[in-house]
Amino acid sequence: MTPNFQMIQSNGVSLRTVVEGTGPLVVMVHGFPESWYSWRHQIGPIAAAGFTACAIDVRGYGGSDKPHPVEAYSLEALTGDVAGVIEALSPDGTGVLIGHDWGAPIVWNTALTRPDRVRAVAGLSVPYTGVPAFNFLDLVKLAFTDKGRFFYQVYFQDEGVAEAEMEADARGALRRFYYAISGDAPDGTWPVDKPHGAPLLERLPDPQPFPAWLTEADIDYFTAEFEASGFRGPINRYRNHGRDFDWLQGFKDRVLDQPSLFIGGNRDLVLKMLPGVDPLAVMTPHLPGLRGATVLDGCGHWTQQERPEAVTALLLDWLKGL
Questions:
Q1: Cβ–Cβ under 8 Å, residues 59 and 94
Q2: Is position 301 annotated as part of the catalytic site?
Q3: Residue 274's pLDDT band (boundaries 50, 70, 90)?
Q4: pLDDT digits (tens, 9 = 90+) for 34-48
Q5: Can you give the C-alpha Rg of the chain in angstroms?
Q6: Which of 30, 100, 241, 301 does the annotation list as catalytic?
Q7: Separation CA 9–CA 254 (nearest Å)
Q8: Start-end of H helices in 30-92
Q9: Inter-residue contact 88 to 113 (CB < 8 Å)
Q10: Residue 101 annotated as catalytic
C-alpha cells in the first residue's frame, strides 16, 4: 500500500498518521516495538467498509515527535494525544478506538478518561481489568525480581541500557523479539528461567526463515523506522508505571461503558500470564458494553499481523454493528 500520511498537531506534539476513506472515524494505536504499519492489513478494509481509517505512529515512534523526558510518555500524555487526533479528524469530535499491545491500555484508558471523545473501543492482546489497585512494577518485583528472575519491564527501567542493546542491531533485535512471542515460536522460546540482570535478547533465537506472516519487506520497513527513530521513546513508556498508577486513581469512580471488543491469541504470553483464566470473565465486570471476546487458536502476541483475515473480519463485524 502507498500510505496517505498526514501530520496532526495534538496535545503539544506532531503525530504522523495514515488516513484512508471517509465516514465515521476509527483510530488504530500500535504497541511496542511497532508502527502505524502494524495495521497495514486493516486500514484498507476498514476504509472500504465506509469508515475513515486512521493508524498513528505513537509519540516516540516513526515520523511522530520524540520528546526526550521519561514523563513525556505517561499514559496521561498518550491518551491526550489520541483524544487530540479524534478532535482533529472527526467532524463530531468522537471516534472509535482500536489498540494492540501498549496501544490497548492507551485506548482502554482514553475511553475511560475521555468518554466525550470515544464512542467505542477495542483492545487486542491486552485485556481491560479496570483501574489498577496496585503499581504493576510492585507486583512484578514480588513475582520476579525478589526471586532473582528476569522480567523485561524491570530491565527497561534503567535509561539507556535496553536502548543500547536494541540499537546495536535493530534488525536482529526486532526479528528475535517478534519471533519469541509469536504463535510460531515453540513453547519455551521465551526463557522463563533467565536470571534478573540478564540482557533482553539473551537466548532469543533469530529464525531462518522468519514465519510468513512477516515478510522480509515488512522487516525492512520496521527496521528502517527504528534505525531512524531509536528506541528511547518506545521504552520510556515502560518507565511510567508509577506515574500512570497515580493518575488513574482519579478515575476509580468511572466505568468504561462504551461498546467494546477484545481479540487475543491462545499462544500470546500476555494471556499465558493468566493460565486457566477466561479473559471474558476477567473483563466483564469492568466492561458492561463488552460485545465479544475472541481468543484465536495458534495466534501469538502480534494479533492483527499473525491473523490478519480473522482479526479484520471480527473488527468489521463489530464496527458495522455500532
A1: no
A2: yes
A3: low
A4: 999 999 999 999 999
A5: 18
A6: 301
A7: 29
A8: 40-48, 75-89
A9: no
A10: yes
